[in-house]
Amino acid sequence: MNTSSKKVISVGLLGCGTVGASFFKLTEDSKIQILKTAGAELKIVKVAVKDKNKPRSVYISPELICDDPMEVVNDDSIDVVVECIGGINPALELISAALDNGKSVVSANKELLARYWNHLHDKAAAGKVQLFCEAAVGGAIPVVRALEVSLAGEQISRVTGILNGTTNYILTKMSEEGLAYEDALREAQEMGFAEADPTADVGGHDAASKLAILSSVAFHSEVRADDVFCEGIENVTAADMDFAKRSGYTVKLLAVAQTLGQGAEDSSLGDSGQKIAVRVYPAMVPLTHPLASVRLSFNACFLEGAASGELMLYGRGAGGFPTASAILGDVMTAVSYSSPGTASNSLKRADIYPVGGLENKYCISLYVSDESGVLAKVAEVFAKNKVSIRSMEQMGMFSEARLVFITHMAKEDDMQRTLAELASLACVEKVGSFLRVYGDE
Amino acid sequence: MNTSSKKVISVGLLGCGTVGASFFKLTEDSKIQILKTAGAELKIVKVAVKDKNKPRSVYISPELICDDPMEVVNDDSIDVVVECIGGINPALELISAALDNGKSVVSANKELLARYWNHLHDKAAAGKVQLFCEAAVGGAIPVVRALEVSLAGEQISRVTGILNGTTNYILTKMSEEGLAYEDALREAQEMGFAEADPTADVGGHDAASKLAILSSVAFHSEVRADDVFCEGIENVTAADMDFAKRSGYTVKLLAVAQTLGQGAEDSSLGDSGQKIAVRVYPAMVPLTHPLASVRLSFNACFLEGAASGELMLYGRGAGGFPTASAILGDVMTAVSYSSPGTASNSLKRADIYPVGGLENKYCISLYVSDESGVLAKVAEVFAKNKVSIRSMEQMGMFSEARLVFITHMAKEDDMQRTLAELASLACVEKVGSFLRVYGDE
Known about the structure:
eleven-stranded mixed beta sheet, 14 helices
């Protein structure tokens, strides 16, 4: 597309829920601004919806509305297709058809891109068009473009994200107001920040999809949602929060991706070089770290690059208008630049490094029987498995007594073996919580 | 430039100090990555330096080095010129010549761009080439590109930056270690974070130049460094820091730009619509605000957009490699995209809104004589000038006694009149400090 020869850009919109309707309204409201900055008029010429008669929050002229999405992707007059349907089907089929028809596509669909990255980018490359997905990760936060363009020459070593607003809202309420997990979840549901079935959010799966996309872009290798090791926040307790705070930490659901390779930490990497480790889990984050300041439903991505150093991008990770803002940025990019950037190259499949080989510090709480010699028995299990204890504190009394340990750096496999053995000790009534501690020693 | 027809991009480098040398090394080290993401080889073919014989931190083949910068800007084989000289002359002349010669230019020169934005962008537009300046603001932080591309359709209402690493380092040391200003400055100088003559940094002038550039990009109007109202951190005391902390704040040197207009806050705006208010000053920032978490020499930009909501970009604001990383991102953009984006349009001159008309909350400390009736006299001055007091606290005792006030929202002009009258009261020995309080009521 060249703005000097073409003054009207025709956009077809798939889906008109919260995000689609917000994008429609934002485009209407921004006409002057868009003309000024892109030198082109952006015109939404067709909107495909499920039910033509459903009342909507924005007025859309009836002649724009259709209920057959194939009409949009097959319309020769349309330059850019914006997909706001979500889910795998029929989004996969529709985007594929649009790309095959030589249309650039802007999608906010994290599930789809975290599963079909190469499939879709191959189609984009074949059609010499572009596929954009800024809105699929971190809402309005321009992290995908930062990685693809500003940091295109940069060696990114690690990406650490708070990528799910629902869980961050719950954890913030637990931390700041001392709420129990269940009460904070209920409040999030009442506020509209959490679904009636919150599994995808609280289980970490939503963050895992987003991390897969970010990793693909940051490391130039296709990472899929299934590659991501995933633990949710369901077992984080008010007591964990309290202990974290007093120790100078807060608890966040982190999505972490990093490269290991080329003569680095582990000899199991083989010849091919770079491996990528990807995981989502609740972790203790030092209060002095910028990620600790990400409160409520906000999201953030913390990037570590060889030359750039530490970068963090922070903003609204969800919601109609923030997401629409990212979509509009992608549409404007599709309009303003003619050559397909890195956005439209398919990637080699990532070589995934198993989480068991990673090193972390850990925080473990154990409910133990109130008898002498318990600590010695417990400490022996740690020592046997090569996990070294940095600090221990007894919390609570009598039947509520628990021991909270923070370890030095230890291998995840060793830690997991330690946990299993601790659970089987007669003097350990149960393993309370288990959190990674963020930060290098 | 089109990467499909041209496989080698020739870069000419002006200046080889810390930033220039870092860019040279980074480009060498990133060859494979660049080929992978841009599909082109980036080759630095000429490096202009002041003194050919000066020892350098990187090895540069002698045949690349010249001591006449005009050789670089007039070399027909060069596609992109990277300017790392700094200052107005001869950078202005050299960049002008490069643009006239049809070369895209990447510059890290904040002083120049904060004074000659339109002059240079007119030349770029005339030559159908591009002028990039990501590295001029916030080092590695991709804020210029975020504003120009990702947020191109967005209505930005306010930009709040911590844009100077030296002052942020000093203020962090004062806040976290209780250092006096002079001691923190000395430490910053010893660490290499502050110059022997620190005026440009501590006086806020460096931040003002960067704010001018950010405002030009965010509001699509040319703002110059001279437009920016500027107060430095020289008068911030350890006592201010202490009071701020106990009140739930920290003190930061903020660079703030906002739009006012179109039927908004003030009738003095006239017909033309948007005015822009730009200022740099030390301010109290709530500890819960993400800007409060920006420590040491880090920089950040907090953006407020109509659709995107609140965004913050955080990272290393200076240093050889972070700055080189931003330059490389710009060079890759120049290489990857063919049409000049908004980067290369000249802008209408901004209509500057006088700071005196803005509203803020303020924190004022007054050293007063130890006698009865002082508070009544002081309060009367506030009231007379329509500045309403939110809280008052007496700090210290006897000859060290001072009153610290926080006001409600009040007009800057009214506050300045209040300050002048307070200073002239017999019972006021001196006005201690005067800080704006960040945050809307």
